[in-house]
């Protein structure tokens, strides 16, 4: 049992799980816009997520040497290095415009982590903006990049899906912020810190209503996808309802981040 817990912790701490969530969202983008599977695109996003998230999580720890680096962190660093090499490999298989846009997403990630401006904290610590930066990066990586690389023109469907994807990630982060309420620095002004837990949950519920109804306006609307989306909305509402600061870290780091994976599996198997 202890070994299984250690493996699960490594799986989560190394960002493999969140990378699978992004991988799933790329597949959902392929499904919605009828794009043929693109291995370079999906694996670029998968390994890029591992590199990006580990950079964000462990940069300060390594750069500022706040505490000794343990075995697990060394393994994560090695995994991140291999992932970086693979990101470079798949990067050169993407179209030029996709490469350019991916640099923009990388710049936002770097801004989120590194203090570029004198006497200023990084964007991760700017009051009230963290949730928007993360949501924009997810939309860019899992929706914008695949469409650009497939040379799909930006239509009304594209903008609707951008809104939906942004709302999805925004709501997922709300659950994280509820659980992190006791540990987050008050100056961050996260949504629960600003409006309270009950109103944050209400906000999540309200956002999921237009998220689902926007599906009706998609030109390729079908009842199969609409029902699956409704199941996912109910699942998210339950996660929001039962969220509280006393929940285990696995509630968000495993179960909540599994929502895009469940969504993709429902599309494939239902």
UniProtKB/TrEMBL annotation:
Entry-linked PROSITE patterns: PROKAR_LIPOPROTEIN
Sorted UniProt keywords: Membrane, Transmembrane, Transmembrane helix
Transmembrane segments: 12-34, 40-56, 68-91, 97-117, 129-148, 163-182, 202-220, 226-243, 250-269
Recorded superkingdom: Bacteria
Name of the protein in its database record: Prenyltransferase
Species the sequence originates in: Flavobacterium hungaricum
Lineage: Bacteria, Pseudomonadati, Bacteroidota, Flavobacteriia, Flavobacteriales
